[in-house]
Amino acid sequence: MSINDPEIPDIVIRRLPIYAQTLTYLTGEGVTTVSSSELGARIGVTAAQIRRDLSYFGEFGKQGKGYNVQFLLNQVRDILHLGHSWGVALVGVGLLGKAIVHYTGFKDKGFEIKALFDSDTRKLGGEEMGMTVNHFSKIPEIIPELGLNVAIVAVPAHSAQEVVDLLIKAGVKAILNYAPITVQVPADVRIRSLDPVAALQSMTYYLNPDPKARSRNGKHSK
Amino acid sequence: MSINDPEIPDIVIRRLPIYAQTLTYLTGEGVTTVSSSELGARIGVTAAQIRRDLSYFGEFGKQGKGYNVQFLLNQVRDILHLGHSWGVALVGVGLLGKAIVHYTGFKDKGFEIKALFDSDTRKLGGEEMGMTVNHFSKIPEIIPELGLNVAIVAVPAHSAQEVVDLLIKAGVKAILNYAPITVQVPADVRIRSLDPVAALQSMTYYLNPDPKARSRNGKHSK
DNA sequence: GGGTGTGAATGAGTTCACAGCT
DNA sequence: AGCTGTGAACTCATTCACACCC
């Protein structure tokens, strides 16, 4: 029941990292015990949802008491396989790619970038954080060699599908995509896309389209 | 019916930018007409979902024909209020913040960064792309002055809530949050968070926790 | 008393399937 | 013939509400 139960909804899986994150902050604050309603309030979901989500994986709480923060955090981390460091390939070493390589958050959380790829001949052979930049064509060789099955794609939209196809052929099973385009992957490969512009566009729907009018008549203060 | 219909599910709104993006690529390819099944195949959703989503806003297609790509794109852009440029405040000018300022994708898509804020005294008064870096304390003054109601938060987790509170008091109604923490906002404010680590963690659930074993016995090539 | 875990009820979102238009 | 727009059916997700336990 713990190994890859396909009946657990993906939407539940996507909430687990938020639970882990929040539990981590709670340990940092010295909180040892938390109830589903306290945790829910902190995350912005209902207590029932927290309890239902966790119930897919086991019984982690104590009636009348709540959850032991450290214990629950360990459990969630186990479920997500966060116990060891995952090696990651980064494709695309432009402005965004460089910011990603230098961001310490990945390594701190167990995702260590171990190989860099780009197609720009001016970048090839260059170094970032002690790693050589290899051409796309080296993907089929280097990725199996290093045993990587996680990749970050930070290339322009027009080469994203090509890059993703190469990665998948090389054995990658999880892809974080920064390119603003929908990429096709087979069912046994996971992909998540981060598109800041799409996120902004989905919020402007709710905004008054004429901000000048709003600021002029002072309606901006709620 | 076109102005802020609250019965339209947010999940539909969040798909519209993807439709707009895909329709934009289609115009670039010279495609003039598209059916719901073609568009769905491209995006990875069903034809029925496309038709249902669009039906919340009007009747944009022609039976037996499909949708005119340019017309549908214009309609979706109107719905999302993408017709003009939105002024944006950026809070946090660290590595990530700098990458954001220099990324041309925001301006190209109508989100123009017009003010920079940070709390680090070493950065204050400095410039990025011709804009001065102001202290957090200037938020209540500068944001209403420029009439901004969209903001990007790229500060460390520990100051995210404080910054968001300041922004909201200054009139911001839409926030793109890069800090890996859940931030509380009132119901009339929209917030979307981008957390690359959380995205990766939600995928490792599906992966074999021991990649060494996988690469050793060659199971990576499917 | 306080809080979990979970059947049952409800609500939300997706897909079916087809009438109707071109 | 081909494809939209949409009631109706269905599936999936959330919330209710309570037995049970600490």
Structure in words:
The structure is a homodimer of 222-residue chains. The first copy, chain A, has 222 residues and is α/β, with parallel strands linked by helices. Chain A folds into two domains: 10-79, Orthogonal Bundle (Arc Repressor Mutant, subunit A), CATH 1.10.10.10; 86-200, Rossmann fold. Chain A is 43% helix and 18% strand. Chain A is built from ten helices and ten strands. Chain A has a seven-stranded mixed β-sheet with strand order 6-7-5-4-8-9-10. A three-stranded antiparallel β-sheet of chain A has the order 1-3-2. Chains A and B meet through helix 1, strand 4, helix 5, strand 9 and helix 9 of A and helix 1, strand 4, helix 5, strand 9 and helix 9 of B. Chain A binds a DNA duplex (22 and 22 nucleotides) through residues 9, 11-12, 35-37, 46-49, 51-52, 54-55, 59-67.
Low-confidence stretches of chain A: 213-222
Largest sheet of chain A: 7 strands, mixed
Average pLDDT score of chain A: 92
Shape-level CATH architecture of the largest domain in chain A: 3-Layer(aba) Sandwich
Q: Percent of residues of chain A in helical segments?
A: 40-55%
Could you state the CATH homologous superfamily of the largest domain in chain A? NAD(P)-binding Rossmann-like Domain
Question: What is the count of structural domains of chain A?
Answer: 2
From the alpha carbons, calculate the radius of gyration of chain A and give it in angstroms: 21 Å
Q: In CATH terms, what is the fold-level topology of the largest domain in chain A?
A: Rossmann fold
Seen as an oligomer or otherwise, the chain set is homodimer
Distance between the ends of chain A: 49 Å
| Largest interface by Cβ-Cβ < 8 Å | A-B, 79 and 79 residues
- Strand order, largest beta sheet of chain A: 6-7-5-4-8-9-10
Global geometry of chain A:
globular
Q: In CATH's first tier, which class of the largest domain in chain A applies?
A: Alpha Beta
Order of helices and strands of chain A: HEHHEEHEHHEEEHEHEEHH
Helix-strand category of chain A? alpha/beta
